[in-house]
Amino acid sequence: MWTIIEQIFPYAIVFTIPLLITALGGLFSERSGIVNIGLEGLMISGAFASALTVNFLQDKMQGSTILWIGLLVAVVVGILFSLLHAFASINLSADQVISGTAINMIAMALTVFLARNITGSGNIRITSGFTPFDVPVLSQIPIIGDLLFTKTYATTWFILVVLLLSAFILNKTKFGLRLKSCGEFPQAAQAAGINVVRIRYIGVMISGALAGLGGAIIILTYAGEFTGSVSGLGFLALASLIFGQWRPLGILGATLFFGFASTIANVSQVIPELAVIPPIILKIFPYVVTLIALVIFSKSSQAPKAAGEPFDPGKR
Amino acid sequence: MRNTIVSLISIILGLIAGGLLMLFIGASPIEGYTYLFQGALKNISRIGDTLATATPLVFTGLAVAFAFRTGLFNIGAAGQMLIGGLCATAVALTFDLSRPILILVMILAGIVGGGLWAFIPGYFKARFNVHEVVSTIMMNWIAYWTVYYVVPGYFKGEFLETESRKLAEESTLRTPWLTEMFQGSYINLGLFFAVIAVIIIAFIINKTTLGFELKAVGFNRHAAEYAGMKVNRNIILSMLISGALAGLGGVALYTGNASSMQIGILPSQGYDGIAVALLGANSPIGVFFAALLFGILYSGTGFMNAMIEIPPELANTIIAIIIYFAATSVMIHRLLNKFRKTRSNANDVNGPVGKKGEA
Fold first, then answer.
1. pLDDT digits (tens, 9 = 90+) for A195-206
2. How many angstroms separate the CA atoms of B250 and B86, rounded?
3. Which residues in chain B are contacts of A299 at CB distance < 8 A?
4. At what angle do helices A2-31 and A248-267 cross, to 10 degrees?
5. Looking at this predicted complex, what is its ipTM?
6. Structural domain contains residue B129
7. CB–CB contact B313 A113 (8 Å)
């Protein structure tokens, strides 16, 4: 049993990280009052941008620098793409769910359209991604070392830093508190002299940046190829956001849960102890649990009160 | 009238954006669109294929539009299609009935399957106030994995693991006379069911107490409740009907346009249904025409791709951009208002803006 856990752990964490960072992005957007159902599309745009960048640079440059450049480009593309959503839902008071859906559709279609035009097949392959490494010293610690510090990616540590930073920004800084006030009671925030439109723009742009990063990490760690989708991970990130009750640490817990559940479902066939469970049960397990969690949390939901509503300064 | 103009402008802007994309990859937009429309409408057989492509979209568009009227966002039409299609396929492969009865049972199975899949989010929404967007997305993935394991487990195809057994010709929605009339197209009875569904839904929304109540709940849930309407019951009922429509879309897709189910695919028609509903301004007739337009785009791009090297995803891109413009219709409304104002200032006539021709 222990060896199974030991084997699963690194994979589960690798799978968790893109979800985590995307859900964190969603957190910033929703906390500022803009529902962002376009996370899936933003992830796809980031995945596409990073795959294209790395694919383009891999003949010309060596080393892991190109991978970090790929991540950076994904962040920029994610931000640019999210501006479409920000413009529609902030300036034009569009229905945020519909606008987000449009973002998803545009990203899904446009990236494959461009990829097909570039490579012919619609897939973009990269020859090398991040390589897993054992953290020196720490990986020698019994138990924890095997679970947490072996076969880790540089991106994993990077994202964990972003997580801590996000928690700090949201809870301890002036900007974070202002952002949250815009998601709870924007009229009051404005009366207090906060520029609601600006804060919301920043919230959506952060969500674009982080979701783009999430999509890029999928490509540069375990996928290795852009195929035009991120298999619904953006929607799963959205579910994690709710599951985690719009709090950074809650999101960490929720995404870890999804990461483990998916990894167990994926490897169940090769592990005799798990092979006795019908795979369908394992596959639908995370989604069913999410539904149940939604029901349980429905009474005490911590959702930002103004999320999804267009900002109307004159409303009382 | 106003909605029609906004929709038409969105379509034109979407097509222009598609043209720019073609220019961007170095193709000629005029040539591209010529091939696209030729591919969709060149001869009677292609017209039949276009209509068949539009059929599931009519159903999913109706499904999303119907839920929209009650203020619900049914993003789970894809999952409801899958389950509806799975139920109908299961019936067709299991029971040995005479054709009219079999078709009837298949349709009922599709309605029940899709309806059940939407009932759960509807119930959660009404009883626990769980947001339907997230719950229907979860239901989509549950449907995806259900089909993924049920099809190979019970209805495995002869050659491929990833496909169900092919339905016999007489247990699909295709009929010889339609196929002959459209010279070998895969058009099928689904189209007639779609037209019937449009009429029934239009009747329910516009002429019945149920439709009135559903719309009232959509406009203002609390006011509807104050007026003595059973809000929770209406929410569940609306999702149920919406899911049933999407389930029928699945029947049309998997037992009409196709004759087997593939695993590992969430049908894109579910998502496109949102686009269809939005472009059709949530009215059944509007949905019908929007679905036809999307049918043209989808069935035309294959031919276009074969003739000149433009990726067929152009259709999805154009549709997505149309939806973005439809979602930001405030912008178009503002422009129209400005246009109207300057015109009425100029010659003091505020006649309606001239109707734009269909693109």
1. 999 999 999 999
2. 8
3. 128
4. 140
5. 0.86
6. yes
7. yes
